[in-house]
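Progress note, project year one: complex with cobalamin.
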Amino acid sequence: MRKTILATVDVARLFNVTETTVKRWADDGTLRCHKTPGGHRKFPMRNIVEFAERNKFEPVGVLVLPKQDDLGASIQMAILGRDFPALVKAFVEKALSPNRTDLYLFFSYLYEHRIALWEIYDNVLCPGMRQIGERWQRGEIGINQEHRASYETLDALARLQSEIYVKPDNGKSAVFACPGEELHEIGLRSAAYIFEAEGWTTHYIGARTPTDAVVSAIRDSHPLVLALSVTYPSDPQRSLEDLRHLSATVHAMGVSAVVGGTGIPPGTREISSVDAVLGSARDILDYLALKMPASVPSAGRGV
Ligand code: B12
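Model obtained:
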């Protein structure tokens, strides 16, 4: 698939304008770029997304995909039609493909075409990983492929994050953890990246963190929010008690606890010290807009 620093011709194609227009945007500083020693303008993806967001421009064209990407034509069609089931299909193929950069370039390509970060997580990654789990259950892929897809995904998300448009630092911070024996951390990672893109500082302590260690992290970093993810609580009652204990402890320290993930134990919503139970990346943007108003997404669609 293609690279993520665009040339003038790519930007012109993306917004369906002439190259002269793009050069004018670049030269008057409307669209930031850097120049190669040979004088060619180059546009990092984050500048393009920030520019489109600020000017309320929607990409109306699609970028060229090289011929060696077998899924190229179907991905282009799916992007134009915002056909998420087709994008999920492409994700699954790429997550299971042996090409290490394929998945990251796929995510970049979606982001360049203004598929927002939350849409990538909720509408592509989440259903895609579910399908991978189902394939494994049906015996169509081995556990090695499922593991590989998970780690390739985490890697690709980290690389994407280094290229996206991040709002200026808002002075707020949050701690992210999967408490207890929880190993599923892709959802937690996604949540942390959304906060980060909204200008938050994130302290990511990840999977399988004992509750005491979560409390220590809170003492060390004095965040505003503790975000927890639960997917597979082997003992739901114990998990509920852990959530009750953790949220009450951090609440007393002035920290808001939010919980997400597909395995939240029944009764979590009734815990008074849990500030919110959130089901998706989109929910995070709504939560931040409602409860932490300084980070309301400027264009209404979020990052
Ligand atoms: C990848 C995976 C793994 C990987 C995890 C790798 C990693 N580093 O994360 C590995 C291989 C380690 C694994 C292990 C196991 N797994 Co597993 N795994 C999956 C799989 C295929 C995908 C999960 C995933 O990453 N989804 C993608 C993310 C993005 O989606 P998400 O977590 O739902 O997150 C979204 C929202 O929920 C939300 N969100 C999530 N967290 C948070 C947090 C906050 C604060 C907010 C606001 C939002 C939020 O936002 C996200 C974006 O939309 C699922 C299949 C499925 N149906 O989900 C099975 C699945 C979850 N696993 C399952 C099982 C059984 C296991 C094992 C017990 C297998 C075993 N026998 O060893 C172990 C359990 C280990 C443990 N103690 O936790 C079952 C759970 C069944 C159940 N609930 O009863 C599932 C459903 C598969 C199945 N159909 O049987 N697994």
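Residues 121-122, 125-126, 129-130, 132-133, 137, 146-147, 150, 181-188, 190-191, 227, 229, 231-232, 258, 260-263, 278, 280-281, 283-284 surround cobalamin (CB under 6 Å).
Residues 132 and 229 are 20 Å apart (CA to CA).
No further modelling is planned for this target in the current period.
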